[in-house]
Amino acid sequence: MEHLTVALGDYPHVAPLLEGRAGVDGYAVKPVEVRPIIAAYRRMIRDLEFDVCELAPVSYLMAREAGVPITAIPVFINRRFHHGDIQCAPGSGVVVPKDLEGRRVGVRAYSVSTGVWGRGVLSEEYGVDLGTITWVIDDDDHVEGRVPANVERVTDGRSLGSLLQTGELAAAFTGNAGTGRAGAPTAGWEAATPAPETNEAYPLFPDSDIIERDHYLRTGIYPLHSVIVVRTELVERDPELPTKLYNAFAESKRLYLDEDPNWAAQPRLAKQARKIGGDPIPYGLESNKASIEALQRFSRDQGLLDGSESAVFADGTYPDC
């Protein structure tokens, strides 16, 4: 039986697959632990180190356009909204999104998915001219070579969090996309210096939960935050592999839900399920059409893709689940 090396984040709904309880027909899964999982993204794109790997969806689109021989299946094991991920510096005077024009905004890397989704919302929903903003980064993109002229790299080793607190940034993305970590994606990278309680940043969208639900109900866009990719060589050898993998991920989620039908062990996903009124991580093409199209549109508009159209997912059988 052929082995598949598989690198995934630490999600309970993929544990049955990694543990062998949800099998890939004709294959034995060999889990490879990479923490943080973001470190695996770069290794997959640059070295094809794994047979199957979780990947940032923007990085996947860029890698595919650059000719990297990887192919995706429509399995999105992590999702999140991003209105609440933009924090403004104390004393910045930023009140509404248009106030960011002409200012400096921090994001880990220009192509990080949170940044692409967030900029897309700022542009399409609020008319923000993204080209007037200087995007300040402190890490490399997984796929290099598509950084626009209005991107500036931090060169003195300071974190985005410290730059936000000193007012050198008007705003920044939070978490792994910005102020919640420091340095390249290696062990311990989340050790960013916390903001002093007396000098708190504040959210650009204070009522983000309400705004996110409204945006979803109006547009159907539910931001993708990871996609499963497989080395194209393996698909060429076994054209049924994408369907086999899809079925295994679907079964893995089903087994998880048998034990935790309300996502109680994953409070963030439980909250998102309530927000959208359904499955917080839907798989398949039709149920994710609006999100896939939005991600491609945002990536093109922000200069990360050249606009050429090509097949995004491997041929296979992908019933929504």
Describe this structure in words.
There is one protein chain. With 321 residues, the protein is of the alpha/beta class. The chain folds into two domains: 2-79 and 222-301, Periplasmic binding protein-like II (D-Maltodextrin-Binding Protein, domain 2), CATH 3.40.190; 83-218, D-Maltodextrin-Binding Protein, domain 2 (3-Layer(aba) Sandwich), CATH 3.40.190. The protein is built from ten helices and eleven strands. It has helices at 15-18, 38-47, 57-65, 113-126, 160-165, 208-219, 232-237, 241-259, 267-276, 289-301, and strands spanning 2-7, 27-31, 52-55, 70-73, 86-88, 104-106, 134-137, 151-153, 171-173, 202-203, 227-231. A six-stranded mixed sheet has the order 8-7-6-9-5-10. Strands 2-1-3-11-4 form a five-stranded mixed sheet. The chain is globular, with a radius of gyration of 19 Å. 45% of the residues are buried. Residues 193-198 have low confidence and may be disordered.
Short characterization:
With 321 residues, the chain is α/β, with parallel strands linked by helices. Helix content is 32%, strand content 13%.
